[in-house]
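DM from R.C. (forwarded with permission)

"hey, sorry to bug you on a friday — could you get me a structure for this? deadline for the figure draft is monday and I only need the backbone to look sensible"
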Amino acid sequence: MTATDTVDVGQGRKAAQPTRAFSTFEWMIAGRYLRSRRKETFISVIAGFSFAGIMLGVATLIIVMAVMNGFRSELLGKILGINGHMLVQPIDLPLNDYDAVSARLEGVPDVVAAIPFIEGQALVSGPAGNLGALVRGVYESDLRRIPLIANNMRSGTIDGFDAGEGVAIGSRMAQQLGLVVGDNVTIISPRGSVTPMGVTPRVKAYPVSAIFEIGMSEYDSTFLFMPLEEAQAYFNMGDKATGIEIYVVDPDNVGVMTNAIEEGANRPAFVTDWRQRNVTFFSALEVERNVMFIILTLIVLVAALNIISGLIMLVKDKGRDIAILRTMGATRGSIMRIFLITGASIGCVGTLAGFFLGLIVCLNIESIRQFVSWLTSTQLFDPTLYFLSKLPAEIDSGETMTVLLMALALSLLATLYPAWRAARLDPVEALRYE
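My reply, with the result:
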């Protein structure tokens, strides 16, 4: 195999048609440079570290971004699943026409449900202890329209919820208070009856009719649902409601629906959406996600710098080979492409391996977490600290493609300078002392 081909022109034999770009010859030479031989072991070790660095960098980026996306998606789903996408609260006048307002709001386009509720804070007590709770009164029909509650009943039922005096509590609240379905939970509110001696706390016991498990530790240990009319009586609300929660088709589109909701309410009302109520929380998540992306990109950058150092050493070691190829007719472009292929092969294969490694880890991340927890006898993901009961991971195809393209671009850029140096090598200088 030679770097040039010969062609017959007329009567004579003339040389010199250069090989086409990225020909078999160039791939063959690049492949030989990638294979390890005894005297080139050190260079091959550097290439191996470069490959491992890019693979681990890409895999880490994919895994971390997937976990961050999973956190945001799970938290958003849990928060919006129980709190609603928009909240209508009364201004000036008490909300005693909540049934009529709810019916009007459900007639607004893209509104799925409008749920009136009573809300108050109280102390709940059971055989095993006491907890602060958020007591929420709703209709049974509305409680069934909240899939996060209705579809996640761990025990008991909400059948006949409006007719009885039973309450539904979260699984972690039941566990911490030592309660099961059928037991009584005592609810204590400081806003009780007014007597000549002042306001006395209201204390009442309710049977636990259902225990739900949302999967978000904060909500499972805080929320207690009771019938709306019973909540009105318990909190001395009369015929009034605290507000109306609205669920819409597209939660990301709530900004353009505010005017329609205000018109649909047809009464003085203050309308807020989930982004306004949780702006600090989700902004912090977004900042953390972007910073993690920048920091982890440095891993890929360091691996790309290893490619540069490895190729420069390879060029120094192969100076004699390059000079011989040049004297045989190889062009500067051909030499440059040989080293481009050599460096880019490390980057491309490392990126592909990192993609598959990251994909495998993301698809099995909860099993891996449980295995590592069992192996180390520690709890790596405490639900009380991270809100969720399991480690989530959600791969975004657009972000993953961005990571892959970035890794490939850095790998390709890292090969340019060493390849340019190899192409600029003077054959006479390289062979002078040979």
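R.C.: lifesaver. The first strand starts at residue 4 and ends at 9.
me: no worries. The first helix runs from residue 24 to 34.
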